[in-house]
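Lecture notes, continued. The same structure-token format from the folding unit now serves as the input rather than the output. Read the line below as a description of shape only.
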């Protein structure tokens, strides 16, 4: 079965290339200060202060997708960074030490040198350790939010604690940027972030339709602007283009996977170096991965231009990764039901326990509560030594056969 390629990919490539070109110019001409920011760090403050922003997790993903990570990681391991910690971190630091970067395609010799690095530990501790390496290397400040984690509910006290830390960053950031934070600039940036989030959400929600016009494997690529351009006008501009195409597909009954028979949920990180392999394997099995925790993590419903800093704090805390098991299970259950999912794939990512939810019984609990089978795939976001292609293919093929047996409509017996 064939996968239908999205026409918007050309606009996506143009948007990402323009972003990296503007970053390259900022590096070359020093016309703007450069900040590194974690994926859900307070980017809106940075943009409103005129920083050019670089997202090293995106760089880590590029190293994984280009299958360069296993070449670069040993340099970081040799410095004492364990092979068991985040392979984004080790592949990125290793790439820096080797002066290698996939950004060479955009004219970079190495990653852009930061004037400041800003983290939020809402996702993991690794981001702080990662940024502190560069802080020591370049003798530049490292600022951050130390976030509460594993929350049952987000309380006003949690929001206060994070909002206070974001506010405390403003003064040192103003000193580095050489300008005061303008309240209207911050509001405008948060408004753009919210617009990006709403459009991105609408793109992902289009997959509630049958056949789904977009899969997880498309979305993992098309989420680029939501990651690196949140708070900039280019991101909503791109998602209007993508959404128009997805709506046209829905209207015409065109699916991302020809002859869609089965619909899956992908829980956990992508396996960047094997995205194409999984996409092809599942399309050949008439199966669309229609929803994922990962791509949904760039939806920030709480952002509100009328209350910028508190809403940024709340948005960072309401993310799936910040929750305890109970809200996470509730979230997956709701999405499985709403997207009409037949089965759940859990990626147990070796070097990211923070984004792996298969280790404390969740697959079995959800499977029995929902009557939907679950399969756990061993792998890693970047380190392909932790992944067996043959074993994964066999497991996925067996899993889809099992789904067919569950579904009378697909010729199965419907017996469990
Ligand atoms: S969440 Fe996981 S993959 Fe992302 S930076 Fe943290 S450890 Fe690495």
């Amino acid at each position: 079965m064939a996968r239908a390629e999205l026409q918007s990919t050309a606009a996506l490539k143009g948007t990402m290339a323009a972003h990296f070109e503007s970053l390259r110019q900022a590096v070359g001409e020093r016309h703007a200060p450069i900040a590194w920011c974690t994926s859900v760090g307070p980017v809106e403050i940075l943009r409103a202060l005129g920083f050019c922003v670089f997202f090293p997790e995106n760089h880590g993903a590029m190293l994984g997708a280009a299958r360069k990570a296993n070449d670069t990681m040993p340099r970081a391991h040799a410095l004492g960074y364990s092979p068991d910690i985040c392979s984004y971190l080790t592949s990125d630091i290793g790439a820096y030490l080797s002066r290698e970067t996939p950004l060479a395609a955009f004219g970079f010799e190495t990653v852009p040198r930061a004037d400041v690095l800003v983290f939020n530990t809402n996702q993991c501790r690794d981001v702080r350790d990662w940024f502190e390496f560069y802080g020591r290397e370049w003798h530049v400040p490292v600022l951050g939010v130390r976030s509460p984690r594993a929350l049952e509910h987000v309380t006003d006290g949690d929001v206060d604690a994070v909002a206070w830390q974001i506010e405390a960053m403003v003064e040192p950031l103003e000193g580095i940027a050489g300008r005061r934070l303008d309240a209207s600039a911050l509001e405008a940036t948060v408004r753009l972030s919210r617009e990006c989030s709403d459009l991105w959400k609408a793109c992902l929600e289009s997959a509630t339709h049958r056949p789904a016009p977009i899969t997880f494997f498309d979305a993992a690529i098309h989420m680029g602007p939501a990651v690196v351009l949140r708070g900039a006008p280019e991101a909503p501009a791109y998602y209007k283009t993508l959404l128009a195409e997805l709506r046209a597909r829905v209207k015409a009954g065109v699916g991302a996977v020809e002859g869609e028979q089965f619909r899956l949920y992908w829980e956990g990180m992508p396996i960047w170096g094997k995205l194409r392999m999984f996409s092809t394997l599942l399309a050949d099995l008439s199966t669309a991965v229609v929803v994922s925790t990962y791509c949904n993590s760039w939806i920030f419903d709480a952002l509100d231009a009328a209350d910028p800093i508190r809403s940024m704090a709340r948005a960072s805390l309401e993310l799936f990764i910040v929750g305890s098991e109970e809200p996470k299970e509730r979230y997956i259950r709701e999405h499985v039901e709403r997207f009409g999912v037949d089965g759940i794939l859990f990626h147990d990512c070796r070097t990211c326990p923070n984004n792996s939810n298969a280790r404390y019984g969740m697959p079995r609990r959800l499977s029995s509560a929902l009557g939907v089978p679950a399969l756990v795939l061993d792998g890693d976001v970047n380190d392909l030594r932790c992944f067996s292609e043959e074993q994964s293919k066999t497991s996925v093929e067996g899993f889809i056969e099992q789904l067919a047996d569950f579904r009378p409509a697909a010729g199965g017996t419907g017996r469990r």
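Point for the exam: The chain is about 50% helix and 10% strand.
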